[in-house]
Design goal:
By secondary structure, this protein is an alpha+beta fold. 34% of the residues lie in helices and 32% in strands. The chain is built from 5 helices and 7 strands; from the N terminus they run E-H-H-H-E-E-E-H-E-H-E-E. The chain has a 7-stranded mixed β-sheet, sandwiched between helices. Strand 2 and strand 3 form a beta hairpin. It is globular and about 40 Å long. The two termini are 26 Å apart.
Length: 154
């Protein structure tokens, strides 16, 4: 699996990937159009490290990292979406492990992310990756999330 930085020339491929994530968009309370527009805008805005995970020419997952949060100083995984075609077969686990090793650990040892309270599947996934509940918070969009944290001892 290849992980690489998003560039503006990837916009069509990113949009195509996002439009396939109907369940994720619905869980976020968004139409697929709103979900696509918001995430493309986030990837193009800068300020974070936006990544595509690919096999050959197929985008199978995306991630968006904030390497140093201005308030708590930790690395935040703002978005990690694995294509719905691959749910339940272990690819998400493999992709996350590669993401953590290649893109997260070289920069930090404390990771945080937010999970929607009703997304039990995601909560179970992140617990298997070593994350624990830290607190409740509200996103910039106004969504209530559970903040999960993982600390790697150097």
């Amino acid at each position: 699996m290849k992980i690489r930085s998003y560039t503006g020339s990837d916009k069509d491929r990113l949009e195509s990937f996002l439009r396939r994530q109907v369940t994720f968009a619905a869980m976020n309370g968004q139409t697929i159009d709103a979900f696509c527009v918001e995430n493309v805008a986030d990837f193009e805005a800068g300020g974070t490290v936006s990544l595509l995970m690919e096999t050959d020419d197929d985008v199978v997952a995306i991630a968006d990292l904030l390497r140093r949060h201005p308030t708590d100083g930790s690395l935040w995984l703002g978005l990690f979406v694995v294509d719905e075609r691959f749910h339940g077969n272990g690819i998400a686990q493999t992709l996350y492990e590669q993401l953590e090793q290649e893109q997260m650990l070289p920069h930090h040892s404390v990771f945080r992310l937010g999970v929607l309270p009703h997304n039990e599947r995601a909560y179970r996934f992140w617990r298997r990756q070593g994350y624990t509940y830290e607190k409740e918070s509200v996103t910039a969009r106004g969504d209530r999330v559970h903040v999960l944290i993982k600390t790697i001892d150097p």
